[in-house]
Specification:
The chain is an alpha+beta fold. Helix content is 17%, strand content 45%.
């Protein structure tokens, strides 16, 4: 057995991640995909929704964050992942309380205040309001991408969400996620307004291929859709996820939606070593 690489496991409101300090960029993308798939797998691996990598920045900012989903696909951005990454960087002395980092979707600004981390999300690059899903389903979706290229999100109103068995949502999410309207697939966010400015959200995540306990960019997409429909009172909304509450604040609506903040708690779960036996066909970058 060989100790391969130190890891930190964290969760942001129940969205859980394995974090690797990959500033030495010792693994090629092909291997990173394998590490993500093997270690995120529950039961046989550590178990997580995704693998987060802290890499050197190619620009002026503090560092770069990359996200590989549990199935090995690379995502553009991850809101809860970014909150965990910011806290990790702060605790490890890599970033200050206020930091800026790169993602495929664009720059993310973060503010760490104890366990609570607030991030400024990427501005939306695509908003398509209220399209029909298909003739069979009496549902409409709003499609939103945060960042450019952005994480794809469909927002779907769902009556009786709280009492709907997760298996049912999972089956519907899986079906919609591959819908032809979404060329790069989509995360499917089901929501129900709970009470004034409090919204229940359940997200079927692309790349995890399951309902996760919370999704940051998904929760923000729900808030944006509600704000555009005039269903939000004020600039802030509380999103009730299965992992706990998230707060979304929309700083500007006119002439376009921007300055969107995501705030919530982060938790350090464990630290240790990933062992070579856990990763199929592992190999390090040569030279
Ligand atoms: N859970 C993440 C989104 C991950 C995106 C991923 N599922 C993908 O579509 O590649 C969040 O908090 O924003």
């Amino acid at each position: 057995m060989k100790q391969l690489i130190p890891f930190t496991k964290m969760n942001g409101t129940g969205n859980d991640f394995i974090i690797l300090d990959h500033r030495d960029r010792r693994f090629e993308d092909r291997i990173l995909k394998k590490i993500a798939k093997s270690t995120c797998r529950r039961g046989l691996g550590l178990g997580a929704d995704g693998l987060l990598l802290l890499e050197p920045s190619r620009t002026e900012v503090d560092f770069t964050m990359r996200i590989f989903n549990a199935d090995g696909s690379e995502g553009e951005m991850c809101g809860n992942g970014a909150r965990c990454m910011a806290r990790y960087a702060y605790v490890k002395g890599i970033g200050k309380e206020h930091m800026i980092f790169d993602t495929l979707a664009g720059h993310v600004e973060a503010k760490v205040q104890g366990r609570e981390v607030s991030i400024k999300l990427n501005d939306p690059s695509v908003i398509e309001m209220k399209k029909n899903i298909d003739l069979e389903l009496p549902m409409v979706w709003t499609y939103i991408e945060l960042g450019n290229p952005g994480v794809p999100h469909a927002v779907v109103s769902f009556k009786g969400l709280q009492d709907t068995p997760l298996g049912e949502l999972q089956a519907l999410g899986r079906r919609l996620r591959y819908h032809e309207s979404f060329p790069k697939g989509a995360n499917i966010n089901f929501y129900e307004i709970f009470e004034d400015n409090s919204v229940l959200v359940r997200t079927y995540e692309r790349g995890v291929e399951d309902i996760t306990l919370a999704c940051g960019t998904g929760s923000a997409s729900v808030a944006i859709a509600l704000a555009l429909e005039g269903k939000m009172k004020g600039a802030s909304v509380q999103i009730l996820t299965m992992g706990g509450p998230l707060e979304i604040n929309i700083g500007q609506m006119v002439p376009k939606v921007q300055n969107i903040y995501l705030t919530g708690e982060t938790t350090f779960v464990a630290e240790g070593w990933i062992c070579d036996e856990a990763v199929e066909e592992f190999e390090e970058r040569r030279g």
